[in-house]
Specification:
single chain, 203 residues, alpha+beta, seven-stranded antiparallel beta sheet, three-stranded antiparallel beta sheet, 2 helices, 12 strands, globular
């Protein structure tokens, strides 16, 4: 009986420590300047906490709140006349996502998914449905920033359009556990150790 209680406690601790990852999905978003006649492009890699999103609905995250939702965020620009290189979440003041009142499946490519207004993603105006956009803090003039629906303006002045928003390949994003996850894990482990030691003293 005593052993059973200890084993159940350990199982609970493991479940508690791992549950924080239940809503985390590694995402790769890509932009291209091809539709605007330029060779600029951008790729963003991040771990998305889908539990923080309004799905369906509109979600907006400011500089103080989005780091916990768009974790390990990095956006890399290439092929622009200026502003090539990597940018992090600290370079952006606002990130927002509009599902166009559709319930999107973040485990597959978002562009083309069905919503009440049509396929989610950029299209020929006025058929563009929903939005995903980033806005720079303005501290670095070379940081790409939202210019219109689904599009960014690079530091060199090129427009780039979102072409993909999908789960990243396993090797694309390096998973770094959240600080809160480590804390929860250590607290759970500490509780188990305490219970085992107390039981040993009683025996």
């Amino acid at each position: 009986m005593k052993t059973t209680k200890i084993l159940l406690s350990i199982a609970g601790a493991v479940a508690l420590a791992t549950s924080a990852h239940a809503d985390l999905i590694d995402i790769q978003a890509q932009w291209s300047g091809a539709s605007f006649g330029n060779g600029a492009s951008a790729t963003a890699l991040f771990t998305l906490d889908t539990s923080a999103l309004n799905n369906p609905g509109f979600s907006s995250f400011n500089a103080a709140s989005f780091p916990s939702t768009f974790q390990n965020f990095q956006l890399t620009v290439a092929g622009a006349s200026a502003g090539n290189g990597a940018f992090t979440g600290a370079d952006f003041s606002v990130i927002f996502l509009n599902t166009a009142m559709g319930t999107l499946d973040f485990h597959s490519e978002l562009i083309g998914q069905s919503t009440p207004g049509g396929a989610w993603g950029p299209g020929a105006f006025p058929t563009t449905v929903g939005d995903f956009n980033l806005f720079s803090t303005g501290l670095n003039i070379l940081t790409p920033s939202g210019s219109s629906i689904f599009s960014l303006l690079t530091g060199g002045g090129e427009f780039i359009l979102l072409t993909s928003f999908a789960p990243a390949s396993p090797s694309a994003v390096v998973a770094v556990p959240e600080t809160s996850t480590w804390v929860m894990g250590f607290l759970a482990l500490g509780a188990v150790v305490f219970m085992v030691r107390r039981q040993a003293l009683r025996d």
